[in-house]
Write a structure and sequence with these properties.
Blueprint lengths: L1 E3 L2 E3 L16 E9 L2 E8 L4 E5 L5 E14 L2 E6 L3 E4 L5 E16 L2
Antiparallel strand pairs: 1-2, 3-4, 4-9, 5-9, 6-7, 6-8, 6-9
Protein name: Cupin type-2 domain-containing protein
Organism: Citrifermentans bremense
Pfam families: Cupin_2 (PF07883)
Length: 110
């Protein structure tokens, strides 16, 4: 079994369990990190989040568990398990976990 960055290659994984909740923290785990893009699992305790920032690439977010408010260019979006949202490149965005929240972030650099 090959392993890179703590993720077993060629083995099945449970997306929801890739990053675990920690009190008062944001936890991330890189799944894939390649020159063409990244896939990262995140777990946010309730009330935790990411401050407003921009990225030069579109960011695909798949909500795995919980609920969050994601602000994109001044518009708030409530997202919950099973939903996706795409944060456009070069638009300011931020997020805050309404309750404990897990997401898979896919960034493709193109």
């Amino acid at each position: 079994m090959a392993e890179k960055k703590g993720v077993a290659l060629g083995e099945k994984l449970n997306l929801v369990n890739l990053a675990g909740y920690q009190d008062g923290a944001v936890v991330s785990r890189t799944v894939i990190d390649k020159p063409v893009g990244t896939i990262t699992a995140f777990a946010f305790d309730a009330g935790e989040g990411l401050s407003e920032h921009t990225a030069p690439y579109d960011a695909f977010v798949q909500v795995l568990d919980g609920e969050a408010e994601i602000n994109i260019d001044g518009t708030a979006h409530n997202v919950a398990a099973g939903e996706i949202i795409i944060m456009p490149a070069n638009k300011p965005h931020s997020l805050r976990a309404v309750k404990p929240f897990k997401m898979l972030l896919v960034m493709i650099r193109a």
